[in-house]
Amino acid sequence: MKKLLKVKKNIKPSAVNSNTLALAIIDLLKISTKELNYKQISSKLALFTTEDKKHILDILHQLESEKKIKQTSKGKFKAIKTEKPNYYTGTLDVSANGNAYFISDELEKDAFIHASNLNKGLHQDTVKVYISKRKKSGKQEGEVVEVLKRAKTDFVGVLTLNKNFGFVVADDAHMYADLFISKSNINNAQDGDKVLATLQDWPQNSKNPFGIITKVLGKPGDHNTEIHSILIDYGLPFEFTETVENAANQIETTITKEDFAARRDFRNTLTFTIDPADAKDFDDALSFKILDNGNFEVGVHIADVTHYVKEKSILEDEAYQRATSVYLVDRVIPMLPEILSNNVCSLRPNEDKLTFSAVFELNKNAQIINQWFGRTVIHSNKRYAYEDAQELIEKQEIENKDPLNQAVLILDKLAKKMREIRLAQGAISFDKVEVKFNLDKEANPIGIFIKQAKDANKLIEEFMLLANKKVAEFVGKSRDGKASNKTFVYRIHDEPNSDKLKDLEQIIFKFGYKVNLQTKKDISSSLNNLLADIHGKAEENMIETLTIRTMSKAIYSTKNIGHYGLAFDYYSHFTSPIRRYPDMMTHRLLQHYLDGLKSPNAEPYEAMCKHSSDQEFFATKAERDSIKYMQIKYMQKFKEDTFKGVISGVTEWGIYVEIIENKCEGMVRIKDIKDDYYLYDEKQYALIGQSTKNKYQLGDTVFVKVKKTDLERKHLDFFLIGKDSQ
């Protein structure tokens, strides 16, 4: 055993400080597997004189009296295990019913907090919590004792006005307390207005926080008001300032002779884009050439945004603050002004465009023979919509002599081989469906359709993945295969949460599916098999959503850990600089290293990565809210209709049901199920009737009707009609 106290033999005990010796004895007893007497302790601490032993014996009795150690049998001692502290720091996850769960890295499982014990803690706040155990169940329960940091102080809601004061009822279902607004803080808002209010104070003796109205957004239900409210609720802008627009309009867009001379020229190489039919910001293009040796040269050409947006400029600052474009149902909120995103930088057909490119030589087996990275100029010959390219791939008109169409067909074959290799290496194939809307001229939803990725989408995806991966490897790997330790922006994705995987295993077992959780490769392989098995089944969307929830969230960082979902050791984002700020950072750093310059300090880049990840999170939430808003707006027209759905979630206050035909999800509240008194069974993921033993379980097929549509709070309530008898 390693000696805990380094002292020489036969030294006087006075030479060893009593406090130091006491700590050494406690440490020794903590790591010892058995009780020790004073002689054994003196031997292990190398203190052998009679005086040393007497000193040790005195300290042992002192520690025993202080209840720091315990005498188990005559003359033998062991350490007393100290109880874990009952106070923990973490964040709150507040549910719509006002109760919450406390999430802390210090706890193995989340702790339940009743609404009465939140003590002014709000959703996502950082708080200090006292943890105790329930007497009956032994489960952990908490009480907030201090709010350390507010996650949010700005809330969008509707003003209810009285004579001398008002209350703002927040749209956010997680916000359980209305904001009290004094007369002096109403700022000309009218009763019923949708407003932005800032929480200023929450007095100790008040049930409600005090706030001030900072902006009147419009009237509830007005389409633009509701869409702007979604953006503002997440701190996202919906327009550019005049200063930013002016800066964009003043950019020099002419491509000079010097620009052409400094770049590799691809204008005479067959080049095309494939994008959504309604897209205007074309980030990427592919070029294609058959080489003399029979191999293929494929260029992945990306808009050279950083040629136009210079560091420390007004546009650079705006791009950084936004960090991402936001794609709502009826509009795009671009990261850059439209003159850049839809015009100057967009790789439109029949125009010379400046690009940053990753060029690969591939053989017929999709193996990379050579690669090149650098700045280029291109001239796109054609713009395909995904639907056009998909039709071409499905028809497989080999006799069609159009070289562009031939290029699409060859690249499709290469992409399929690349995808096959990637999946064999452990990548997970999430082909989640997208909910899309047909809108009328006033942006009202008149239809919902489900969009799934097809071969044309996967063609583009594979070549973008290839470019992102190879750019990251080029910077991140040394020639010997080891990490280069150069500062770079990586897109990282950690391994899935083991507890969530075990929960998934239990849920899918009820549907007759299994997953193998033994090794990393087993997990990815069995998840792919699961996703293939559920394809086309009623439970597909629910199980795929639950599977995605087991995954960690992909983020940006300079600290590379690889990308689990793609099974890549090195991965970055290089291919979408028009709509993602991290791609702009990647472009600048790649050029920095191509120029042979030294690695810059990682710290400022890590801060920019953190900001970009946060903004991406808020943008994703806003996008989901806009879909939910449109779904509820659409369902307002069908209050008399009965729909078939799948139970997609079960809670103690009701069940969530997702309609199969349009993916609209709503809640059946437990109080609205009248045929029995139902209780939530956590282990069975079910509500069970106490008299009838009738069971509504996760994944069951049921019939529902619309009870209530709440556009402001984006909530849909159903009546339960009954189970599907089939």
Task: Give the topology, please.
Elements: H1 18-31, H2 38-44, H3 50-65, E1 69-73, E2 76-79, E3 87-94, E4 100-103, E5 111-113, E6 126-133, E7 140-149, E8 154-161, E9 165-170, E10 179-182, E11 194-201, E12 210-218, H4 223-233, H5 242-249, H6 257-261, E13 264-265, E14 270-275, E15 284-290, E16 296-303, H7 305-308, H8 314-322, E17 326-327, E18 332-333, H9 338-344, E19 352-362, E20 368-379, E21 382-385, H10 386-395, H11 403-424, E22 434-439, E23 445-451, H12 455-476, E24 490-492, H13 498-509, H14 520-533, H15 540-550, E25 555-557, H16 581-594, H17 602-635, E26 642-651, E27 654-659, E28 665-669, E29 678-681, E30 686-689, E31 695-697, E32 701-710, E33 715-723
Parallel strand pairs: 10-12, 13-20, 14-21
Antiparallel strand pairs: 1-2, 3-4, 3-6, 4-5, 6-7, 8-9, 8-11, 9-10, 11-12, 14-15, 15-16, 16-19, 17-18, 19-20, 22-23, 24-25, 26-27, 26-32, 27-28, 29-30, 30-31, 32-33
Helix pairs in contact: 1-3, 2-3, 4-17, 11-12, 13-15
Written description of the protein model:
The chain has 726 residues and is α+β, with helices and mostly antiparallel strands. Among the domains are: 13-79, Arc Repressor Mutant, subunit A (Orthogonal Bundle); 87-149, Nucleic acid-binding proteins (OB fold (Dihydrolipoamide Acetyltransferase, E2P)), CATH 2.40.50.140; 154-220, Beta Barrel (OB fold (Dihydrolipoamide Acetyltransferase, E2P)); 464-622, no CATH class; 639-723, OB fold (Dihydrolipoamide Acetyltransferase, E2P) (Beta Barrel). 30% of the residues lie in helices and 28% in strands. The chain is built from 17 helices and 33 strands. The strands form 9 sheets. Strands 13-20-19-16-15-14-21 form a 7-stranded mixed sheet. Strand 19 (352-362) and strand 20 form a beta hairpin. The longest helix has 34 residues, at 602-635. It is globular.
